[in-house]
Amino acid sequence: TATSSLVKRSYITTSGNFAAAAGSCSSSNKMPEKRVVPVISSLEDFERKLPGYLNKKTPLALLLDYDGTLAAIADNPKNTYMNVDVEKLLNRLAVHPQIFLCIISGRGLRDVQSRIGIKGITYAGNHGLEIESGDGTRHDYPLAAELKNHYAPMVKELINKVQKNGAWVEDKTVSLTYHYRDVPADISEEQKQLAIRIIESHGYRVSQAHDAIEAKPPVNWHKGEASLLILKDRFGADWADKIKVIFAGDDNTDEDAMRFLQGSSKTFRVAADPEIQTYADFRLPQQDLVEDLLKWIRKTYTD
Ligand SMILES: O=P(O)(O)OC[C@H]1O[C@H](O[C@H]2O[C@H](CO)[C@@H](O)[C@H](O)[C@H]2O)[C@H](O)[C@@H](O)[C@@H]1O
């Protein structure tokens, strides 16, 4: 079955050679030439700019990021919430027979599951390193032992040396986030640079997030690869011929999904900055437009 292949599939983990692994995907990550991304700024805009993309006879895979997409960015990850209408819409779409709902987050799997709170849907945590289907089937990216052995010492060193002046380490067991929002501006950059050096000295890869940096294992696995695995697993290798796909996200790590889904989906980047470079098909200038995206889908599939 689709779910059993999720468990059985095995991936070749990059070897203990961190540097080689870290360099191996850099060229394919290059952004396309500067282009103006069409903007969607109202519910009507979805219909106007994507006429006929969705129809109730064709199944939809709806892949959504959490922080900054379903929930507005807050001062602390513990203080995020989806507004009541978004929650209701999501719950409704989750049980629609033509809609496959998946949440793909940088948070730990259990954390994002508890925040969304919908049973029976697919979740990916830690940027896709951990995946759990609605029936409980799991896929954990097999990280090399040498890499895993560096994780705890990395957390310890970060806590000892840079968890200060308001900064703190979010330990998510296979990747971490170093939050520095509350560090005074005059020392923030220096402290962040030290955190980056510590992370890289342990062979982990750094990427920028909102007032935080992410430390991820240097493997060619991210939200893009995870999205493809999830889609293949659920709909088969020819998923692109059978279904429509929508992905929405707001962060650098979501760009991997937007890049991997190019041409076979419609992707939306939540970003206020009109100059932002993105692989997405459309830009949503405010986070609350995600609610309109969900309303557009509900209207198409339930009216
Ligand atoms: O992939 P996502 O679901 O978008 O998760 C990305 C990271 O989100 C969280 O951090 C970000 O959101 C926080 C709450 O709004 C905010 O305080 C922080 O500044 C942001 O960077 C989460 O804490 C991380 O673990 C996720 O990787």
From TrEMBL:
Gene3D superfamilies: HAD superfamily/HAD-like, Trehalose-6-phosphate phosphatase related protein, domain 2
Keyword Secreted: no
Pfam families: Trehalose_PPase
Cofactor(s) this protein cannot do without: a divalent metal cation
EC number: 3.1.3.12
Annotated InterPro entries: HAD-like_sf, HAD-SF_hydro_IIB, HAD_sf, OTSB-like, Trehalose_PPase
Catalytic activity, as annotated: alpha,alpha-trehalose 6-phosphate + H2O = alpha,alpha-trehalose + phosphate
Pathway noted in the entry: Glycan biosynthesis; trehalose biosynthesis
Record has Signal as a keyword: yes
Top-level taxon: Eukaryota
Top EC class for this record: hydrolase
SUPFAM superfamilies found in the cross-reference section: HAD-like (SSF56784)
Assigned keywords, A-Z: Hydrolase, Signal
Chain's role: Removes the phosphate from trehalose 6-phosphate to produce free trehalose.
Family: Belongs to the trehalose phosphatase family.
Protein name: Trehalose 6-phosphate phosphatase
Organism the protein comes from: Bactrocera dorsalis
